[in-house]
Design a protein that fits this description.
Layout: E1 2-3, E2 11-13, E3 22-23, E4 34-36, E5 45-51, E6 56-57, E7 66-69, E8 71-78, E9 86-93, E10 108-115, E11 123-129, E12 135-138, E13 145-151, E14 160-166, E15 200-204, E16 208-211, E17 215-217, E18 219-223, E19 230-233, E20 277-283, E21 292-298, E22 309-310, E23 321-322, E24 327-334, E25 339-344, E26 358-366, E27 372-374, E28 377-381
Parallel strand pairs: 2-11
Antiparallel strand pairs: 1-4, 3-18, 4-14, 5-13, 5-15, 6-28, 7-12, 8-11, 8-14, 8-18, 9-10, 9-13, 14-17, 15-16, 19-20, 20-25, 21-24, 21-26, 22-23, 26-27, 26-28
């Protein structure tokens, strides 16, 4: 794990399609902490981030029984960019016999030979990778999808790594990190790595898999539907991008959409001084301004999403799926440049009573042609 540097910010688009697509928003107001090769060290291997099926549903629903991805955004770093290297991206469904781990026998290639950074010295670059056709990975088990970056062998002075968001204080060399709420473990030392406490794991050799201490790759995913996920607003000094209002260069919607506090708010102050609030964001390419966006909150506080039901079965031409159990409209907002959001304040009297509950949200819009577009469903675990 090395200190993070993002230089230049160049973007690579591979085989870009003209079809409209929106990123879900896992990278919204999310800052890089470090560059990591996980547990693979200098050997060739894979570092993966888990998109938890209990935290995100109703996305990539073009083909029933699959999650269909159009693009993946990530940040790759090279210790010596003068020697250009490449990496692959593979998608895995969840292993039905080992929940929280990938099914290595059913991996699906998303992209191969993606170029690493170029230049001289240590360089990190944003990559937006878009295959010629969308890639579908089957939904298995709890519906987790694993995005794996397949990295070549490295040396002590050269090699690729992926930039990550840390979920713990790793010391003064790593001043940026996002500490989640109690459901992902609290206290020091950081809880042992497992599917319950981390979204990042490594693969070495044919079958060896192990989770790494609480973190995730800086990552986002685009699909054919509307974008936007749940956000968590925090007061963390070490993760200022999650504050309200969003600082310059972030936003405009406040709060982070990552898999750390973005999926596990600290509403009750498990970490001293925390009193997180939550929000829901909606994004639709081409929606423009002053289009009606509706925000839904599930009155059912259990961990499970409802069945993913295509909205088109009720409204002709509609896109997206309904996946809340007992949805209730809580707000309307006009779109601004295709984006809208709604903040939900957690009442102080309830903060200490939410432990174990799950808050599920969703948003939808009516476009210029009167067509309804539903975004993905988000679940926050308290």
């Amino acid at each position: 794990m090395t200190n993070a540097r993002l230089l230049g910010g160049s973007v690579l688009i591979l085989c870009a399609s003209a079809t409209a697509q929106d990123f879900l928003g896992f990278s919204h107001n999310t800052a890089v902490s470090a560059a990591s090769r996980g547990s693979i060290g200098l050997t060739a291997g894979e570092v993966m981030t888990r998109i938890d099926g209990s935290e995100a549903a109703g996305w990539g629903t073009a083909t029933p029984g699959f999650r269909t991805l159009r693009s993946i955004a990530c940040i790759v770093q090279d210790k010596d960019a003068a020697t250009v290297e490449t990496f692959d991206i593979t998608l895995y469904p969840e292993n039905t016999l080992l929940p929280g781990f990938p099914d290595l026998a059913h991996g699906v290639a998303f992209a191969t030979a993606v170029p690493g950074p170029s230049g001289t010295g240590g360089v990190a670059e944003l990559r937006v990778v878009t295959p010629a056709t969308p890639v579908a990975v089957p939904i298995q088990g709890g519906g987790d999808v694993f995005v794996s970056f397949v990295l070549p062998a490295a040396t002590g002075t050269d090699g690729l790594s992926m930039q990550v968001v840390l979920g713990f204080d790793a010391g003064p060399s790593f001043p940026t990190f996002d500490v989640p709420g109690a459901v992902q473990g609290v206290g020091a030392p950081v809880p042992a790595a497992s599917p319950a406490t981390s979204h990042f794991l490594s693969r070495t050799g044919p079958t060896t898999l192990n989770y790494n201490t609480r973190r995730q790759c800086w990552l986002d995913v685009a699909h054919d539907g509307a974008g936007g996920m749940g956000l968590t607003i925090t007061n963390q000094v070490a993760f200022g991008c999650s504050k309200e209002p969003a600082p310059e260069g972030y936003g405009p919607a406040p709060g982070t959409g990552d898999f750390l506090s973005g999926s596990a708010p600290d509403a009750a102050g498990s970490n001293t001084g925390r009193a997180d609030d939550i929000a829901m964001r909606f994004v639709k390419s081409g929606l423009g301004d002053n289009r009606l966006v509706v925000f839904l909150l599930d009155q059912d506080l259990s961990p499970e999403f409802g069945a993913e039901l295509p909205v088109s079965q009720w409204f002709a031409g509609a896109t997206g799926s309904m996946c809340l159990v007992q949805p209730e409209i809580v707000a309307f907002a006009p779109s601004v440049n295709g984006e809208a959001w709604h903040v939900t304040r957690v009442p102080n009297a309830l903060r200490g009573t939410l432990s174990g509950y799950v808050v599920k949200q969703q948003a939808a819009c009516i476009d210029q042609n009167g067509v309804i577009h539903a975004g993905a469903c988000d679940a926050m675990h308290f």
